[in-house]
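#data-curation
PF: Archiving a pair of folding outputs for the training set. Convention for this channel: one message per protein, sequence first, C-alpha cells after, nothing in between. First:
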Amino acid sequence: MNFGFLLFPDLEELDLVGPWEIINVWRKYSNGPSCLTVSERKGEIVCAKGLKLIADYTFEDCPVLDYLLIPGGQGRKTEMHNQKLLDFVKQQSNNCRQIASVCTGAFILHSAGLLRNKQATTHWSALEELRALNDVRVDERRFVRTENVWTAAGVSAGIDMALAIIAEEAGEETAGEVRLYAEYYPDNKRYGTAHTNEKAPAYVK
C-alpha cells in the first residue's frame, strides 16, 4: 500500500514531517505502507520555515494512493483555489482507505468537496474561518474523524492523528509500538498563560 504526502510551497513543516516520521516507523517496524511525496510539478518546494523538499512524484505520474495526507500552512491560501491540485485530491480520494489533513490543510479538503457536512477541526487561529464555511461542523478536538476523512488541529496534532490512523488500520498494539519508538509521550506541562487565550481551542482550555 502507498501513503502519499502532498507537497506545495509554504506548507508548514511539522504538519508534514511529524506524520511522515510516525507513518515511516509503522512501515519500517510493522509492515506499514510505503511512503511517498507528491507535488504538482517537479523541482524544489520551499516550506514555510525554509526547509526545501523535492517530491517523489508529480500529479501525472503518482501511483494510486491508499492514504493521502494534506498539510497546512500559508501556502494553503493559494492551493485551496488550485483546480489542478483539487482535482488530484478528489481523484485519489476515490481510492483512499483514509484521507487526512493537518492544520489548515482542512481548507484544501473542503475545497475538494471532502468536508461538506462533516465534523472537522483545524489550527486554532483558523477555527472561525472554518465555522464561516457553514457546511462544516467544527469540533475543537486534537483531531476529528468522520468516516474515512480525518482532520487534525494545528501543526503537532498531526502526530496524534497519525497514531490514531495506525491504531485504526493496524491495531492498538502496533500504534503503541510506534509511539514507544518515537518516544512520543507529551507531558501535559503548560508554560506561561498562553493557553488561556480566548481563541485557544476547547481541548487546550
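PF: Second:
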Amino acid sequence: MLILSGDDVQSVLTMKDAIDVVEEAFKQFALGNVEMPVRASIALEQYKGLMLTMPAYIGGKLNALGQKVVTVYPENIERHKLPTILATVQLFDPETGDCLALMDGTFLTAIRTGAASGIATKYLAKSNSTCVALFGAGAQAEKQLEAVSKVRRIELARVFDPVTQRASEYCERMSKKLGIDVKVSISPQETLRDADIIICASTCRTPVFSGDWLQPGMHINGIGSHTLDTRELDTTTVRRSKVVVDSRDAALKEAGDLLIPIAENAISSDHIWAELGEIILGTKKGRTSDQEITLFKSVGIALQDMSTAQLAYRRALEQGKGTVVKF
C-alpha cells in the first residue's frame, strides 16, 4: 500500500489535470457508470464538527474505487490553528479489493472542489468573463480562484472576508500566484460590483449577499455550505438563477441553499435544471444567453475525490513519491 502525505499529493497534482479528470468523472456519472451512495454523516454538536463518509466507484475510462472520510470543523482555524476541512482517502483495486493507497485528503479536497467550480464556470459563465467576486478567504478560496482562472481570462478579483487580515494575506498571495489584480473588498455589495463570476466559499450559515444585487449574466459557484440548515445564497438568488447541481440526490438531501427555498414554497425541486454531468454530456444545455443568471450549487460528491485520488496515485507511482508499507 502506498502512503501519500499532503505534500506528496500536492507535488503530483495540477489544477489543469484535476479539472480534466473530474470532468471525465462527471461525464461518467451522467452516463450511468458511477455507483455512489449519498454520504453518511455524524454531527458532533459539542465540538461544532461534522464527520462525513464518502464512497464511490467510477466505471468507464476511470475505473476508480475508494472512499474519503472528511471532517468539517468551522472553528478549527481560530481555536486550534488547523484547517476547517481535514480528510483521509483510501483507494482500492476494483478487481481485487486490495487497498492500493492511503493518502491525505485535505489538499485533494481543495483541488477537486476547485476543479468542479472550474468545470461549471467553463460551461456556465459568459465566455468574456474577467471579474470575480469572492466571498471567503479560507482554505477553499485559493483553489476556487485558481480553477476559475484556468477556464476564463480573469483580470480582477475582489475578496470579502470578515477576517480582514486573512483577506489581505490571501489577496497578496493570490496576486503573486496568478498574476492578476486581487483586492480586499470592504462590503458584500462592493464585492459584486462589475463581477461576472461570483464564488461563495465561506463558512457562513446565512446568505452572504442579497439576490436583489445580482446583474444579468452573472454566474455563481456556491460551494461553502452543505448542510440542511445553512446557506450562503438567499431565496431571491436561487429563484433568479438557472440552477445546476453536482448531484440531484445529494443536493436535495444536503443543500440548504436549495432546501430552504423549497421549504418556503418559493421554488420546487424542479427548479434544478440539470446535473453538471448532463451539461458536460450535452443532454442539457448550459448557458443559452448573456442575460441568464446561472448557479452551480455543489455539496461535493465522492466521484470528485476518487477520480482525483486515482490521478494522484498514478502520478505518485510514476514519480516515485510516497512510502510503500505492508500490513
